[in-house]
Amino acid sequence: MTELRLEELSAATIVAVNTLSLKPGQEQFLAPVSYAVAATVVDPHTTWQRVVLDGDEVVGFVSANFSVDAPQEHFRSVLWRINVDADEQRRGVGRYAVENLIAEARERGMDHVDVIYEAGEEGPEAFFRSVGFEPVGETEFGEVVARIVL
Fold first, then answer.
1. CA 19 remoteness from chain centre
2. Using alpha carbons only, what angle is made at residue 113 by residues 115 and 63, rounded to the nearest 5 degrees?
């Protein structure tokens, strides 16, 4: 792996993001990437979307939202999505993306970052715990709400 870097999601990188592969079983925990991309149309000022590059290759994608006016606390500073290509998982790409997301949240004056996920054997809980998220509750639909306090 060369040096990782972040870039804003763009027309030049969106095709690569849409073709990131998943490990077997992971697809049940992710909505299509196009759902996350559509969020920028709703409010491009609060949405933060970045691709993770290793050299010139897109190896990951992270999408978050920062809105102090969100009606529910766990939507005010939230990691909506993180995808790391199947071949790049367990190499630090996801951790790099989360570290940069936390830096962005601090820069915006947030005091926490939440993530909402569905629990399950092949799900993302182990990753989220490994980067510092701790469960703090559930949504009305039974999804886990986990938080990193900044």
1. 16
2. 60
Q: What is the pLDDT of residues 17-68, one digit of tens each?
A: 887 876 666 655 555 444 444 444 456 678 899 999 999 999 999 999 999 9
Cα–Cα distance, 105 to 101 (Å, whole number) = 6
The 3-state secondary structure of the chain reads CCCEEEEECCCCCHHHHHCCCCCCCHHHHCCCHHHHHHHHHHCCCCEEEEEEEECCEEEEEEEEEECCCCCCHHHCEEEEEEEECHHHCCCCHHHHHHHHHHHHHHHCCCCEEEEEECCCCCCCHHHHHHCCCEEEEECCCCCEEEEEEC
φ, ψ for residue 15, nearest 5 deg: -65, -45
Strand partners, 58: 53
**pTM of the predicted protein model:** 0.86
Domains and CATH numbers, the chain: 4-149 (3.40.630.30)
